[in-house]
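During the reporting period the student researcher (J.K.) took over the structure-prediction task from the postdoctoral fellow and processed the backlog of single-chain submissions. One of the processed entries is reproduced below for the supervisory committee.
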Amino acid sequence: MYGTPVNKCAFIGNVGKVDPSYTGNGRLRLKINLAVHTRRKVDDEWKDETTWVPVVAWGALAESMQKTCKKRAIIAVDTSYTPYTYESNGETRYGHNFTAIDYQVIKWAENDQSNDDDSGDEEEDNSDGGDIF
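J.K. obtained the following structure tokens:
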């Protein structure tokens, strides 16, 4: 095991904005903002926090996810992680890429029980992924 690098991050959360696009050679790239919820105790009070995780899927996996991952659905997604740096206003900034490897729908979106809606009618609001449980 020590000789084999393992690069896997798993997330469970609510699908927010779904943004499909195509590369110059026609390959589908699907960006999904995933709302991952955490509850932690601060002093004597429980606080709920949401972290938005940007997940990107490519090719056949992206096509499958585009059909099934509608806004407010709950999914589990396995990803690989790649950090990167960039310059902004003279400062070095750090970013993270999470590339989908596999996924599973845990709960369908309220208005998409059948998995047959390919209308792509996604709302622009990215502020609310809904409640996970």
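The committee noted the following: The chain has one domain: 9-107.
J.K. will present the remaining backlog at the next meeting.
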